[in-house]
Amino acid sequence: DAGITQSPRYKITETGRQVTLMCHQTWSHSYMFWYRQDLGHGLRLIYYSAAADITDKGEVPDGYVVSRSKTENFPLTLESATRSQTSVYFCASSESLITEAKNIQYFGAGTRLSVL
Amino acid sequence: DAKTTQPTSMDCAEGRAANLPCNHSTISGNEYVYWYRQIHSQGPQYIIHGLKNNETNEMASLIITEDRKSSTLILPHATLRDTAVYYCIVRVHPQLSSGSARQLTFGSGTQLTVLP
Question: CB distance from A33 to chain B under 8 Å?
Answer without folding.
Answer: yes
